Amino acid sequence: MTSLRLGFLLGATLFSCITAATESSESACRKISDKLASVDFLECSDLGLTPSGHTSVDGFPLLIKEYPPLKSRKPKGRILLVGGTHGDELSSISIVFKWMHTLEKHHSGLFHWRINPLMNPDGALRPGQRRTNANGVDLNRNFATPDSHNGAALDYWRARTYENKRRYPGPYPLSEPKTNWLSEEIDNFKPDVVIAVHAPYSLVDYDAPDRKNAPRRIGYLRKNLMGTYPGSLGNYAGIHLGVPVVTLELPHAGIMPTSQQIKHLWSDLIRWLVRNV
Ligand SMILES: [Zn+2]
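That is the input. Now the predicted structure with zinc ion docked in place:
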């Protein structure tokens, strides 16, 4: 085969891959904007979210946006930001879109960001969204914490939640594609801090081996350390791996903070990161 023909074939393959990726993220944006009143189609598609190659149980592409280091500046650290772990906390997805648009304008290279705005599309995008994924698993109880290998997550679920379906940890740790992805992402990207957005408890929580650096306040959210659960992200990344996890619990799952509050949350978050990374 001539190198010209080989080049053409490689080019055609690359082109079809790019087209497929584009279509996939466009149709994903269509579904996201159909669901979220606060995110319109262009607000999603203009971001150029990239399918990571991983999918949810229902086959929805896992979309990533990266704000990489800039030539002019060595970043202070790597930050992994995740929204929508619980599918019925729609504000936790929308606010991450708002913050990505802030980074679109103002990414200065201060941090290297990797962002997944929608960790649980199966729960969020189904009619009458729900907390758990398509397998009925609470993704925030499915991580491989040391105790969950001994069945602690299931024991806790049975004894302490009385088998509450909203908090089912799954049959075994990392049984779900998305928790596998996030665990791999933490291994590969090596974030200095993980930020997880939830609702509706109106607080900021912090999990790390040493909690003395916990933010006292982020925007209008006050510190309230909730402790951890077998199989939770805070337990896995924050306590087990020693990668601090800042959890922002917005006050309402279905009502967005005002644009002023969204800005204030972001500026306080950046201020805390600058001091602590
Ligand atoms: Zn949640």
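The CA atoms of residues 205 and 225 lie 5 Å apart.
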